[in-house]
Amino acid sequence: MTSTGFTESMGWRHPYNYHDLTSCMELMNIEFGRSVHVDAFKVGLNDDRFIGSSLIALYFKFGSIKDAERAFIEIIDKDVVAYTAMVTGYAEFTDFNARGAFEIVTFMHREGLNANRVTLVSLLQAAGHLREFGKGRSVHCYALRRLIGVSDEVLLTSLVDMYAKCGAISIAASVLRQTKKRTVASWNALIARLSQLGQSSEALKYFCLMKQGNNLFPDSVTLANVLSACSNRNLVQHTTSLHAYIMRRNIQLDEVLTTTLIELYSKCYKMKRARILFDHLICRDTIVYNVMISGYLHNGLVEEAINIFSDMIREAARPNFATVVSLLSAFADVGDARIGRWVHGIVFRYGLELDLDVSNLIMHMYAKCGQIKNVKMIFDLITDKDLVSWTVMMMGYVNIGLADEATAMFQKMQRTGEEPDSSVIVTLLQAHAQLGSSEPVKEIHGYIYRTCLVEDIATMNSLIITYAKCGRIDVAEAVFNGMTGRELASWNTMIAAYGIHGYCTQVLEMFSQMQRENLKPDVLTFSSVLSACSHAGLVEEGWHIFSSMNSDYLVAPQEEHYNCMVDLLGRAGQLEEAYNLVKCSPLRDRASAMRTLLAACKVHKNTKLGELIGQELLDLEPQVSGSYKIQK
């Protein structure tokens, strides 16, 4: 049927057909709606407020704002319904259009028309979208003055949602408490916003209050928001109890709930439960595959992550940028270029290499694996290189000791007109630290001050350690002393710089000064300090600092700290003490410390203890038994 035939069959001038017209128009596509609009114009009904309001709603439904505005302008005798149709439409779009909702209401008031309940609900939606507390509060006051919807569930839910989105959590909670007949939607509005703001404990509190209400039970939306809150603050200990509640209440585990539960179980190292949930999903999309892959990688289960990725490819779930980021980052960390190349092939198959960020990430993976030819190949294929591309290329050369190539790449970048940022400068400094000449470093130093990179802590820390490695500890000291915003990392860098030159006295003085300035040392601080004590043979000081880690600073000694102590005691000939320290340590992998101690036994010709340690190393690392037999 043509639009003209339709209009004739509906009987345009019969007032009782307006409702039928509205119902029919809501089922049509926008082109048919425009045809009806044209027919209405032909018969002189385009200015009819009922038809106009229906057209406005239709146009907004399909996102055609200009058509909606045209239909509104054509209405001669505009009423509250027509104005409200515009307000409702504007409220659901962008910030600019949401502001238009309030402008329309201003015109409506000038015409002597008052907003109704539907108008106010839409205005509250617009205020929440804009995060405009003042506008939302004005709407609330208007409703109270005119006694509009004081007990209306939809309006009160909109108030809670608006205040929560504007960050006025206390007012949102107050409105909710004062509501006699609370709805699941009103509770969800508050809990959702608390979760988004990271106020996880509050979200859980209101969830518990909601459960205490009479004849009101959380739904899947509630649970999704509460689970999200647990994820925000890593309150993963609540995962099991929330999962149990879902099962008790027979709440359907939809894709959103299941995916969130999988993510939380992954964070609390319960991958078996996560896998059970995953296996029960009938339809698995890219998002849930990404969550499983990230979960396995978070738990150090790289092989399982690869298997899930293989399943993903077999089931034709298209990998995206997030998939690639998780996998390539993991393979870069473990230095597995073989698996990285396999992922690279899949990236190429799906055309993801066209994304510059993905190309940079693949370069980074190859660079961490020392595959400089592959890094260069991808780098040359990138047409629109950004600073990340240049930085990764330089870093690849630095990682394998080709500092000259890294500096040459920097000069090539400069010729393209690219201005280096802090990441480029840090990588360039690492290259010059390998070369050992302080003269080029002085030029970089000048550039840092000219471009205000002096405010960047990471850049200044790199400058300190580079001067130290180039033999200019005096300049490194001057840079450190001239820094205005020194952080813990800066102190650690200066301590490490002194350690490079064997200045143990200065290391211990810096360590004491840190404490006087109420800076709490971390694992890196203790590694540098204990290493300095080891090289200087300061057994008593080393023991004191090592013992104070847990008791005074709540820093649990790690493998490198035990290795430093074993080296310190071994150099001093206190082999039995070193052996007892290793045997009493909570270390899972004692092989490194044992190897250090075995070398000390050889130096001090302690054959008996050396044979004992050699046998223990044979048990720990049978694959390298030959070297230990020789040392015995």
UniProtKB/TrEMBL annotation:
<feature type="repeat" description="PPR">
    <location>
        <begin position="386"/>
        <end position="420"/>
    </location>
</feature>
<dbReference type="GO" id="GO:0009451">
    <property type="term" value="P:RNA modification"/>
</dbReference>
<dbReference type="GO" id="GO:0003723">
    <property type="term" value="F:RNA binding"/>
</dbReference>
<keyword id="KW-0677">Repeat</keyword>
<protein>
    <submittedName>
        <fullName>PPR repeat</fullName>
    </submittedName>
</protein>
<feature type="repeat" description="PPR">
    <location>
        <begin position="522"/>
        <end position="556"/>
    </location>
</feature>
<dbReference type="GO" id="GO:0099402">
    <property type="term" value="P:plant organ development"/>
</dbReference>
<dbReference type="InterPro" id="IPR046960">
    <property type="entry name" value="PPR_At4g14850-like_plant"/>
</dbReference>
<dbReference type="InterPro" id="IPR002885">
    <property type="entry name" value="PPR_rpt"/>
</dbReference>
<dbReference type="Pfam" id="PF01535">
    <property type="entry name" value="PPR"/>
</dbReference>
<dbReference type="InterPro" id="IPR011990">
    <property type="entry name" value="TPR-like_helical_dom_sf"/>
</dbReference>
<dbReference type="Pfam" id="PF13041">
    <property type="entry name" value="PPR_2"/>
</dbReference>
<feature type="repeat" description="PPR">
    <location>
        <begin position="285"/>
        <end position="319"/>
    </location>
</feature>
<feature type="repeat" description="PPR">
    <location>
        <begin position="487"/>
        <end position="521"/>
    </location>
</feature>
<feature type="repeat" description="PPR">
    <location>
        <begin position="456"/>
        <end position="486"/>
    </location>
</feature>
